[in-house]
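Record type: monomer structure entry
Structure origin: computed from sequence
Chain ID: A
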Amino acid sequence: MCTVARLGLAAVFLVSGALKAVDPAQTRIAVSAYQLLPSGLVGPVATGLPLVELALGTLLLVGAFTRWVALASMLLLLLLMTAVAQSWARGLSIDCGCFGGGGAVAKGSTHYPQELARDIGIMLPALWLLVRPRTVLSVDGWLRADPGARDSDEVNPVAEPGHVNPAGNPAE
């Protein structure tokens, strides 16, 4: 399950980042449409966002630093959801640009509730990976190889010999 969550989240960020990276002018229009940033920051954010998404997707794909990448993914998703929610609250009529495109759209053609629901759905695997980041098919898994480990097995120091459990007794 954890490997599927990790690879699914990786696919989301790789596709999203790639679609933004191949059309930087449109990405700039999408970022500007939120009307949140001074014009001098729109370009750097429009350039940096796809790079961040591609980096997160790549790290998730190989399974490196999974817990930290899951946390960063959740923070990025929360930031993007906040931007979408404020657009909705302010009555802006924009396409979020989450998977390329973006910018102003005709009144009444926005889908803010669906976009927010989709982003919550994307956040669920990130939350899962935050709690259970270890997968066998990953750099993290190979670095902490345990021949008996299954997908999503967490190292439980309480159960390992030499460790003391919460009651203060040595593990058996």
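Annotation 1: The helical segments are 2-21, 24-33, 39-62, 66-89, 112-131, 139-143.
Annotation 2: The beta strands are 94-95, 103-104.
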